[in-house]
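Why do we care about 3D structure at all? Because function follows from shape, and shape follows, mostly, from sequence. That is the central idea of this module. The next example makes it concrete: a single protein chain, its amino acid sequence, and then its structure expressed as tokens.
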Amino acid sequence: MITIVGAGPGTPEYLTPEAELAIANSRTVIGGGRILDAVHPPESARRVELPASGMADAVVQIVKNELNAGDVTLLVSGDPGFYSLAKKVAAHFGKENVSVIPGISSLQLMASRLGKSWAGTATLTLHGRKRPGMSELVKKIRNSSALMLLFGAPEGVAGHIAWLASEPELASAWAVIGWDIGLPGEKIIASRSLSELDAGSHTGRLAVLWLEKSDKRMAEPLSRRGVLPDEWFERRDRVPMTKEFTRSAVLSLLRPLAGANVLEIGSGSGAMTVELARAVGSSGYVVSVEVFPAAAALARLNLERAGLTQRVSIIEDSAPRGIPHEPFQAAFIGGHGEALEAVMNECFDRLETGGRLVLTSITPGATSRALSCMDGMGADTGFWRVHSSFGRKISADWLLQGNNPVDIIWGDK
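And the structure:
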């Protein structure tokens, strides 16, 4: 029988009583030199030290050799359930021949040091593994309460942090790095953002990085861009968002909106909903119709963060069925599905004389249908096709990154 024991960070005070008992009763104890020194196996036990590198390749053979003389205890750092040798050993020898005793992981300790819950936290290890795609990491931090990364060789930590900080969404995250959590030389360094974290000033055996989305509450400097930047908004997979440049263009076509009642079809992530609520002011009102519950919930979340929930009513229904029978001074269609013409006609009917209907399209077919519908309704029609790009600074120069082209169609009643 093989007993795999999670030794925690590598100090006796973090060993569980079950782990202590297993080690005390061991005939053969296998582990890294640092852990063997820290947990004090009994003098009667045979001590087998694993190599400093190439452990994954060597451990199975070492365990196999020692099993010839009887049961063995394999010590692993942290918790055996998190990127440890346990998976490889169990796969080789069979789960029925392996017993696992859990331990305290450095991730658990890091969360406790910060006074944080790590429920809903995404985790990733770069210890002996290749870096994942940056889009994967961005997705993790967007969809999680925080992201924890376990680093490998200390000399590579600064390089990993520089690489992570090259992505703006990660660079702005609140960042804390912990060196040797649970060991005598423990160091914890916090910074307002990952881009400001000085990773080169400290070192140790093991580093854990905690990244948490920055508090993106509305602030006056953001409003000077005309609209809130895309990164301000909470995002979710498969929930669409009207991008920053498009929001700005749509608002320019709908203004003035102060004090107006505005109809929106398709809340999506709530990005346009928030901008409309900001534009109508305290004396205006926005009604947004959204058929998908997940999108409606996300829109409400972004409205709450912006402090604008009192100015908006989200109706969870399909359009045109969910459109209320009341007058509006302006209307925006961001999502319509197959019922484009029916939605446009209902929105146009709800407009007061002089009101404007604006819609966006990302397909030529929908654009053609929308223009034909505008003509059929007798609207005074306009049409823009927008190819937008945004600048991102790379060293001393700038890189242009393009957005998908968007058609913006509007009609006045």
